[in-house]
Amino acid sequence: MLMIPIVTPSEMKSIDASSDQPLDVLIQRAGSAVAWSARKFLSGTYGKRVVVIYGKGNNGKDGRVAASYLRKWGIKTIEYSVSETPKQLPKCDLVIDAAYGTGIRGEYFAPITDAPVIAVDIPSGIDGLTGEVMGLPMHSNWTITFQALKPGHLIPPGSNYVGDIEIIDIGLDTSHIETFLIQRSDITTWLPKKLTTEHKWKSACWIIGGSAGMDGALSLAAEAAQRAGSGYVRISTPGTMPIGPIEAVSHFIAEEGWEDDFRNNADRFSSGIIGPGLAVSSSNIKSIQKAVSDSEIPLVVDGGAIKALGENLEILQARKSDTIFTPHEREFEDLVGSRPSPRRIEDVRSAAKLTNSIVLLKGPITVVANPEGRCLVVANGDHRLATAGTGDVLAGIIGAFLAQGVPSMEAAAMGAWVHAEAGQFLFKYGMVASDLINLIPEVLHETDVG
Question: What is the pTM of this model?
């Protein structure tokens, strides 16, 4: 199965305009698809009543074509233009919302109805780019969109209005699109394959983190890396011998100048993680910058280490191996100087280009981008992950995938997907970060066997 493309409303407009198919043909295909979806939703036609709300644009034309098909099938269908729609819709079995779609400008206040709703493209009143609510939209049971998802389908609060989404192919070309939603089928193809010749050093990961009162972050990252498949995990905290999982190997590094130890020994490792629980002291900032500058292995940079590198982005321009940043919104500001706007995908793509790195922005959806503009979106997480320490677990998972040879972009996106999927196994309330760790192998096994 191919990855699901995501396009902005302006990109979709360009795709429409560049099609060699006449607009009328595309509208007929879209409207027909909406009608068939409505018929399927209604489980038949006899005695059914449908209300269609249509606007002036192509979205409204799609709705009117759908209405014509429904009438041919014997369904009593009432059409209202946006300006003529009553505040309270008449009793019906289904409402088709074709008022505005992604072309909305200004607010939309939907009529009242207790009938189920199918939205054409996106619920009217949801910003297709940002997911912001503009007025008072209807909550749809089902959204029928065409050729590709829009960011507003995935980003809250808009994602709370779309219901189930069906993507209909109407013959438009999206082959040039570089932003995709990640699904289980994608993860299955990326999972690292274990060979009979494996040994622990083939997937070794070195984690530098922890500090007074923050050694738990280092332990969480280390245990997550082990559970995600790293064969050998070394842990180090500047100036002290860390205590972590019994299977991890503690290694002393000096409180100051520890970058020399890292540089001289990192070549034995396939990946490194710098930052979980690491104190942002002046000596650590210098060591972090030097360690990243000198290192020739792929690195995950998390926590306070993000701020250290945000102070000197020039270091990243010359790095030959990949760097993966894993910020939340405040750390994103530490990295690039401003918090992400509602245009999250665009902001992450810009940050990746600025830093010459892969940037993974955590949040209600996780967005991963590389400097070339490719972008992967993970949307299977929820509020359960909004608790202390889950970011350390995520860093450990990504570091383990890197150590097993998964390409950096895929390692970051797969790490976010596995991390979120583990959360789905847990209670909706009371989860703590360590609960995720023992579920990582279960998620990997289920994904591998389908």
Answer: 0.95
